[in-house]
């Protein structure tokens, strides 16, 4: 048996990693110089690194380990499925039991008439599916010109050519020739950074109406769909004003624009319901799911589409699919994850225990001299760091400088909390206990204190 060993010293692992491993979204030469952090095991909400430090993972990996680490049941299910049927595809008029069972379960869980599941291996792939699917839907209905997809600046929908084009990250567009044609980006509902003197609700309405303006400018006969995360995740946990989503829904309904809710982060309990669409009261035609679907234990994702969309797409051949669409091991793991979410009432825990507790402690951070606003929906939260709360000022240093200092201080306090520019974000495992939440916020506050002291010492505020 090939041994995957943890027994090398950290420095050797770091040197081997630097020699051969290219990391995503990373300046690799810089990382090689500094030395990468090696994670060796995890249990509950805690990671252990190769030096034996226990780190509280307030990001649930990459927003995905909803049931927490170390659930042996998923390992058992994966091993059993590998023995029974490690792989078969779902092309060419075949299927298998895990894909059948998971598609059925998802149609039961998904709201409204979202009853049909197209599997993929990652959120990026599922959003690539969505691009082709919504354009093919309109073409099949005799409207091939209806192919523009409207998305938002500072949204994240994946890193492939298609999904990276849907996303509104300029740093991504500047590399590799993105975006592809017929993707249009409108402004985001980020009141803290962009709301100026407007009251938040007026601003939310104005930002939603940019969708209507874009549709009218291009012509509704050219616009296929609007895609958005119910709550922007990677963009900094931007919680839209309450006025935003009802207006978006009204506009999509009025102009017959398909609404794609990207639930890759918001799905599977993150916002306090099974799906963010339920929390934000959205009625999507298509949903993208990934991450929490398997709690990250195995790669799997999907597009869930309405009866209507499925009927149109199914009227002919949709020339699309991935080798690993509905992979049996991943599907079996996802089913076991859903069983745990359901039987252990993890969403009830978010609604009644962890969510309110985290909200109380997280929102209290707004008293800190560095923190301008503290936002939270269910188990995803953010704080805006600022040198001046009243004017919502940005730091004079390049955006992200202060956030990075704060993230480093979190690391030093054995807390994983990400920065997005000068916003700090959290998305802990949903099963986190009240005591662990208090520890999380305690460590975050300590990191904020240290950051504040350093900024004062360096004259950065
Ligand atoms: N949609 C959303 C809303 C996401 O958050 C994707 C699609 C793409 O999923 P895949 O499985 O292709 O990665 C995501 C992924 C970060 C970070 O640093 C966020 C994501 C991925 C990697 C890093 O916040 N989100």
Q: What is this structure, in a nutshell?
A:
This protein has 461 residues and is α/β, with parallel strands linked by helices. It is 42% helix and 16% strand.
Describe the 3D structure.
This protein is of the alpha/beta class. It has a domain at 96-343: 3-Layer(aba) Sandwich (Aspartate Aminotransferase, domain 2). The protein has 17 helices and 15 strands. The N and C termini lie far apart (56 Å). The model has no long low-confidence stretch (mean pLDDT 97).
In terms of quaternary structure, the protein is: single chain
Determine the strand fraction and express it as a percent band. Answer: 15-25%
Report the radius of gyration as a whole number of Å: 22 Å
The second-level CATH architecture of one domain is 3-Layer(aba) Sandwich
Distance between the termini: 56 Å
Q: Order of strands in the sheet with the most strands?
A: 4-10-9-8-7-5-6
Helical/strand content category: alpha/beta
Write the topology of this structure:
Blueprint (H helix, E strand, L loop, with lengths): L9 H11 L7 H7 L4 E5 L2 E4 L4 E4 L2 H4 L8 H13 L12 H13 L4 E7 L2 H18 L7 E5 L8 H6 L3 H4 L9 E4 L4 H4 L5 H19 L4 E6 L15 H12 L2 E5 L13 H4 L6 E4 L11 E6 H7 L14 H16 L2 H18 L7 E7 L2 E6 L15 H12 L2 E2 L1 E3 L2 E4 L7 H25 L3
Parallel strand pairs: 3-13, 5-6, 5-7, 7-8, 8-9
Antiparallel strand pairs: 1-2, 2-3, 4-10, 9-10, 11-12, 12-15, 14-15
The chain binds 3-[O-phosphonopyridoxyl]--amino-benzoic acid.
3-[O-phosphonopyridoxyl]--amino-benzoic acid binds next to helix 6.
């Amino acid at each position: 048996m090939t041994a995957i060993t943890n027994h090398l010293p950290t420095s050797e692992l770091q040197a081997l990693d630097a020699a051969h491993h290219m990391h995503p979204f990373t300046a690799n030469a810089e990382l090689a110089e500094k030395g990468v952090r090696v994670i060796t095991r995890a249990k509950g909400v805690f990671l252990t690194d190769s030096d034996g430090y226990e780190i509280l993972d307030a990001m649930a990996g990459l927003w995905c380990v909803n049931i927490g680490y170390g659930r042996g049941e998923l390992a058992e299910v994966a091993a059993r499925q590998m023995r029974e049927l490690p792989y078969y595809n779902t092309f060419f008029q075949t299927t298998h039991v895990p894909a059948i069972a998971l598609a059925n379960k998802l149609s039961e869980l998904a709201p409204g008439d979202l009853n049909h599941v197209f599997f993929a291996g990652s959120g990026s792939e599922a959003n690539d599916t969505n691009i082709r699917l919504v354009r093919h839907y309109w073409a099949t209905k005799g409207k091939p010109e209806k192919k523009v997809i409207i998305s938002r600046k500072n949204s994240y929908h994946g890193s492939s050519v298609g999904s990276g084009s849907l996303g509104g990250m300029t740093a991504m567009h500047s590399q590799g020739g993105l975006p592809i044609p017929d993707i249009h980006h409108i402004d985001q509902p980020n009141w803290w950074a962009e709301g100026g003197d407007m009251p938040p609700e007026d601003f939310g309405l104005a930002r939603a109406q940019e969708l209507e303006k874009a549709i009218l400018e291009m012509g509704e006969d050219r616009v296929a769909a609007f895609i958005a995360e119910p709550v922007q995740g990677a963009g900094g946990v931007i919680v839209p004003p309450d006025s935003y989503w009802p207006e978006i829904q009204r506009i999509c309904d009025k102009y017959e624009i398909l609404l794609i809710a990207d639930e890759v982060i918001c799905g599977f309990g993150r916002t306090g319901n099974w799906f963010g669409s339920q929390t934000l009261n959205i009625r999507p035609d298509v949903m993208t799911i990934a991450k929490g679907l398997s709690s990250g234990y195995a790669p799997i994702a999907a597009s869930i589409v309405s009866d209507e969309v499925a009927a149109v797409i199914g009227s002919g051949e949709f020339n699309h699919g991935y080798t690993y669409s509905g992979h049996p091991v991943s599907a079996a793991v996802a089913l076991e994850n859903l069983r745990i979410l359901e039987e252990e009432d993890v969403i009830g825990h978010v609604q009644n225990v962890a969510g309110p507790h985290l909200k109380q402690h997280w929102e209290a951070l707004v008293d800190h001299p560095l923190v301008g606003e503290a936002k939270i929906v269910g188990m995803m939260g953010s704080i805006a760091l600022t040198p001046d709360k009243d004017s919502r000022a940005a730091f004079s240093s390049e955006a992200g400088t202060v956030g990075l200092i704060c993230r480093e201080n979190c690391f030093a306090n054995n807390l994983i909390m990400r920065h997005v520019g000068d916003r700090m974000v959290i998305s802990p495992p949903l099963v986190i206990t009240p005591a662990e939440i208090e520890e999380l916020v305690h460590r975050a506050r300590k990191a904020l204190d240290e950051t504040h002291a350093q900024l004062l010492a360096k004259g950065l505020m």
